[in-house]
Write a structure and sequence with these properties.
The protein is mainly alpha-helical. The protein contains seven helices and three strands, in the order αβααββαααα. Strands 1-3-2 form a three-stranded antiparallel beta sheet. It comes from Streptomyces johnsoniae.
Length: about 220
């Protein structure tokens, strides 16, 4: 299984653990809650769902989604299927939640893993966060070394682009340091630290749970 299909499997199982969903609802959640999947199409999602059904991790049930604008216009089988996580599927998701290898630290995978931290044990969260930080610190060291070697040969715009990339990585490392410190102090994962003294103004909605910076360079 490729890395891309593997993280899609993880995300699908995780979302269906919350509740059964129609394929259209599932794709919408993948797009809105897990932005890394915005480029995914039904052509990618349905083969994944079919494989998960064959593995016994999902079950298909008849039903219609009121959120699907095609529901009254289409009568094909896909418009009628609701996908439900099976007991084996729950076990499979728990197994995936516990994995903390290098794949969990990569840009695309880390964002999806972080989205399910609310269902992840603290020791696993720590290993993933520390692994991600280590990976970014290695990347940052390489970027600094590369800039030191080539800065005299670069024009002002290329140099500024490289600085921007470094600042993005540095910002995520600081964010990870805050989260790791929060985990070590045993704070509730549902109340992660604010950055600095930035607080919502009086009367404004509470700040949503922060996610990983979306402009990290690869």
């Amino acid at each position: 299984m490729s890395r891309r299909s593997g993280i899609l499997e993880f995300a699908v199982l995780g979302l269906l653990r919350e509740s059964p969903m129609h394929g259209y609802e599932l794709r919408k959640r993948l797009n809105t809650s897990l932005g890394v999947f915005r480029a995914f199409s039904y052509g990618s999602l349905y083969p994944c769902l079919k494989t998960l059904v064959q593995q016994g991790w999902l079950a298909e049930e008849p039903g219609r989604s009121p959120d699907d604008p095609r529901a009254t216009a289409l009568s094909n089988r896909r418009a009628k299927i609701v996908y439900r996580l099976t007991a084996d599927g729950k076990e499979r998701f728990e197994e995936l939640l516990g994995q903390t290898g290098p794949d969990a630290w990569e840009d695309e995978h880390f964002g999806v893993r972080f989205a399910f931290f609310g269902q992840t044990s603290r020791d696993v969260r720590m290993r993933v966060l520390e692994g991600r930080r280590s990976r970014l610190e290695e990347r940052l060291a390489k970027m600094r070394a590369s800039m030191a070697r080539t800065r005299e040969k670069l024009d002002a715009y290329t140099l500024e682009l490289q600085r921007h990339g470094m600042e993005s990585v540095e910002r995520e490392v600081r964010w990870l340091n805050e989260l790791i410190e929060s985990e070590r102090e045993g704070r509730d994962h549902r109340d992660p630290p604010h950055h600095g003294d930035q607080r919502p103004p009086d009367g404004a909605p509470e700040r949503p749970r922060p996610g990983p910076p979306d402009d990290t360079t690869t």
